[in-house]
Structures are given as structure tokens and as C-alpha cells.
Design a protein that fits this description.
This protein has 132 residues and is α+β, with helices and mostly antiparallel strands. The chain has a domain of 92 residues. Helix content is 39%, strand content 17%. The chain has a four-stranded antiparallel beta sheet with strand order 1-2-3-4, with helices on one face. The chain starts with 7 loop residues before the first helix and ends in a 9-residue tail after the last strand.
Length: 132
């Protein structure tokens, strides 16, 4: 007897395997957009450190206004820069994540950054809800 097609048990096994793979893969992909947004925020802060150091080399002081010389990645807000006695601090947020990233130069640190010139991120304490 010649049969064409698959039996019901074969189809059920394939469906079970697809379901198992989906339960493994979907949770790993859900945070991809937020991780990409955090990487963009950290990159923006690294670029800010470079721009501030260039400004310092040319003008012997730091600034809070880099005007058109500095641009953030799409989706990120412009960083908040504050001058300190021996450097500056900056923090950046995005409407697409609940994380806040910060960086500092000098001896005055700003949470969550703990190393000078190295951006760091953490969940913000605000009640902002990220967009899907």
C-alpha cells in the first residue's frame, strides 16, 4: 500500500518541535530593541566625551552647549550636561526605554556612572513607560 502525505502523529511531532523552539527564541528576542537603544545612548555619551575633550583642547574650558557640532542618535533625547568645578557630568534618556545613562569627567560622579569617561546605564526611578 502506497501512502502520500504525512500521518497525524508526524504532524503533531513537528508542531511540538516548532512550539519548543518558539518558547526558547521569543524571550531572547524581546529585549533586542531595548538593548539596541541602550547601545545608541552609550555611543552618544562616548561621542559627547570626545566632543567635550576637543572643545577643551581648543578653548581651555568645557561647555554645556556644543550647538550643531554634536548630534544624538535618532530616538534619543539631547543629554543634560552640567559643569562641575573640575569637569562635567551628562545624563541621557530615551522615550523608548526606562533606562537612564550617564557619564562624567572630573571628580564629581553621577549615578549610574562610576568610572570617569565610561558611560553606564540603569533603570530610572521615574514612572515613564517605554513605547512599544
Amino acid at each position: 500500500m502506497k501512502r502520500n502525505g504525512f500521518t497525524l502523529i508526524e504532524l503533531l511531532i513537528v508542531m511540538a518541535l516548532i512550539g519548543l523552539l518558539a518558547t526558547i527564541a521569543i524571550p531572547r528576542l524581546t529585549n533586542t530593541k531595548e538593548r539596541a537603544q541602550l547601545a545608541a545612548m552609550k555611543s552618544d555619551l562616548r561621542n559627547l566625551v570626545t566632543m567635550e575633550e576637543n572643545y577643551l583642547a581648543e578653548n581651555q574650558k568645557y561647555t554645556i552647549d556644543l550647538s550643531t557640532a554634536y548630534h544624538v542618535s535618532p530616538g534619543n533625547r539631547t543629554p543634560t550636561i552640567a559643569l562641575t568645578t573640575d569637569g562635567w557630568t551628562a545624563s541621557i534618556t530615551s522615550p523608548n526605554t526606562t533606562q537612564q545613562c550617564a557619564v562624567f569627567v572630573g571628580s564629581t560622579s553621577v549615578a549610574p556612572a562610576t568610572r570617569e569617561g565610561a558611560p553606564a546605564c540603569e533603570k530610572s526611578t521615574g514612572s515613564a513607560t517605554p513605547l512599544p
